[in-house]
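Hi support team,

I submitted a single chain yesterday and got back a structure, but I'm not sure I'm reading the token output correctly. Could someone confirm the output below corresponds to the sequence I sent? I've pasted both exactly as they appear in my results page.

Thanks,
R.
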Amino acid sequence: MVSHCFALTWVVGLLCSGVVVEGVMHHHYSATYSSEEEEEEVEEELMSQEEVQVAEGKSPVLESENGKNTERGGAAAAAAGGGGGGRGGGGGGNSLLIWLVVLGLLGVWSSVALVHLDLVDYHSLIARVKQFPLNFSQVLQGRLRSYDADGDGDFDMEDAKVLLGLKQREVHQEVIAEEEKKPLRPAEAGPAAEAGPAAEAGPTEPGQAGPTEDPGPQLEDKPKVKAKKKKPKLFNKLDKSIKAEIDAAEKLRKKGKLQEALQAFDLLVQQHPLSPRARYGKAQCEDEIAEQRRSNQLLQLAIASYGAAADLPDVTSDLLRAALTRRAERQQFLGRVRGSLATLERLTLHFPEDSGAKNQLGVAHLLLGDNKAAKRVYEEVLSSSPADGFAQVHYGFILKSENQIAESISYLQEGLESGAPGTDDGRFYFHLGDALQRMGERSRALHWYEVGHQRGHFASVWQRSLYNVAGLTARPWWTAAETGYTQLVKALERNWRTIRDEALAVMDQNTGLFVPEDENLRERGEWGQYTLWQQGKRAGKACQGVPKTCALLEGFPEATGCKRGQVKFSVMQPGTHVWPHTGPTNCRLRLHLGLVVPQQGCSIRCTEQTRQWEEGRVLIFDDSFEHEVWQQADSFRLIFIVDVWHPELTEQQRQTLSPI
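Hi R., thanks for writing in. Yes, this is the structure output for that exact sequence:
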């Protein structure tokens, strides 16, 4: 019975003496807060902790009585600092204070008895508590999980034994996340991965590992530390003096109250015309409102405001960069490529180390058709950053357009393999495969076409057009009945001699009307074209030379109104070979009417099927599929090419699709 009493006394003493122990160890732990000023300090401390947590993207969490985490809200705050035990209870607060004093005294005497009778090594316990990094006041607030020493999720007798040294702390081995066990991709492994034997083994699927016979030294798994993103400095000295007003306007913008934000920034600009940050905020508002309303007029105002912000004296370098970059983007969006070019030239002048700005400058030159200037820009980028994927693919594209086929391959391939932003573009897969085919590397070409297909750029390995409408029937060869254009086909075949005679007359009178093919599709030979309709419109005065042919076609708007096609004569001389290629869109079908066809030596392949022309007969195929042409006869071959809308396009689509 006595032992039970002692045990009960020890428990009561230990619990109550927590208050006394905290007072004794004031220099190690925070004292129990009783005065109003001290309570306010605690609240401020807690609030500051919560603000740090919020800044780190965490919700301030308290441990509730049932052990579940809850976000601190009004009720939680009241429970922590106001509810039972607060001073708001009137007279009951004094009675509670008396009971706390009595319990405290009981705790003191119980502790003295325990130490005097050597029932517990209290000095050892105090020493252990001093080493413990948390505050007992947190225990009184319900944060018992902080004292969970055995890893079972709560504070109990086993945890007390660990803290008293009566039981060893269990070590829980961390389980490595599956994500961390995965091998590094070449882009993550650094430059060493690029120099391995993978280059000799040929291209691999993006994300596949190369040969692993000699893995070399293994990297230790270390916890990944997120690099803190450097916050751009957008405020100069003047901006800092009105930071509160700017922040208030910016808050409106971020909340989507764009009109109010614009008014606030506009007022700031009027009051402080030399504030770059106020003008930049105004430009952002105009930009976003223009996007909402799809207004080019408002977008022009935003472009002007970005320029005004960049022109101010004492503008910070970060704001100058942001304003000029966005201005160039929006100018290019509006089709003001020359204005964008001027802005990018200014940007690269201020930030010569900015390869991203130089890359965009190269794009602007390409859009203006100035390949030589673009080439110089990308050569400059690659001289300082040889592994810049964006510069690599564009430089490779330029080399290929200059017919430097072999030289273009490595740049296109390495740029695509880099996975750099802006490189995953169907055009680069298209041109890399085409370059490989022209160098006789058919299997590698098919590999990259397949990668482009898997990436969603091509409908299939064979159908590689880039400007498509989804859902249209795709087959390489068609019959007249399948197209639904039987009347057009019959009219062409019925009048083929008239069409032929007019074409031959033009050839005899002025061969200069047949312009040489200029899309770099020929390996060798001569190939001339005489165009009557282009993008749904008559080509100048071309119909004056072949009036009957044009009059015949006027009754077939599926041909003359096809904005993504042409109507033209095509003459090909002996010894000509046209590389395998595809048309730009799946929105059209192509009709070939034979006019002058040698008996042997002329053929066309579409996918894996090869056919020959016949005089007075129409062949129909979908030129978005790969096709190739040979002219190995002894005399010229003349055909009439008529493009028509894909029959499954609606009338609205035919009206609204952009010309190609």
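A quick pointer for reading it: Residues 134 and 478 are 80 Å apart (CA to CA). Let us know if anything else looks off.

Best,
Support desk
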